[in-house]
Amino acid sequence: MADTVVGADPHADPSRRDFIHIAAAAAAGGAAVAVVWPLIDQMNPAGDTLALASIEFDLTKVAEGQQVVIKWRGKPLFVRNRTAAEIQKAVATPMSELRDPQSDDARHKPGKPQWLVLVGTCTHLGCVPTFGGGEYGGWFCPCHGSHYDTSGRIRKGPAPKNLVVPDWDFLSDTKIKVG
User: Fold this and answer.
1) For residue 42, which phi and psi values (nearest 5 degrees)?
2) How does residue 84 score in pLDDT terms, banded at 50, 70 and 90?
3) Which helix (H) or strand (E) element contains residue 78?
4) Across residues 30-36, what is the average pLDDT?
């Protein structure tokens, strides 16, 4: 049997050379993935925002005439059970008196005017209005003096728009889903 000298003939053991090329290519590919993966992964939405993309809420926690504030997508969400007097006052408001005209019917679900769901940030600079203040019986933003009525529509102050009504729906008579 003849002895072979390593490196004497480059074609002496082609399977060994092929293995080295394949191993080097695999290592380079793994290194490329290791470098690129964090760059791609950082483009995904944050995990804490995915959990709050939609939220369910039990309406039995809100008595008539009261409001509950819950957190949704990092913002306060007002869930209000309006009284008959508040609804009547909102319906009776002439559109000509509104800066951002929108009927009360457009701000609640059909047949359920007592339930009002609003994003609880002032449309001026994002402050959180308080309920029961102001001149119109609704919300008042103490930061800059915006007044909202019982339907969340802007009536006075620097805010340009009504409080935002998010996308929401009833899952049952006592449960809603926002988002």
Assistant:
1) -70, -15
2) very high
3) strand 75-81
4) 88
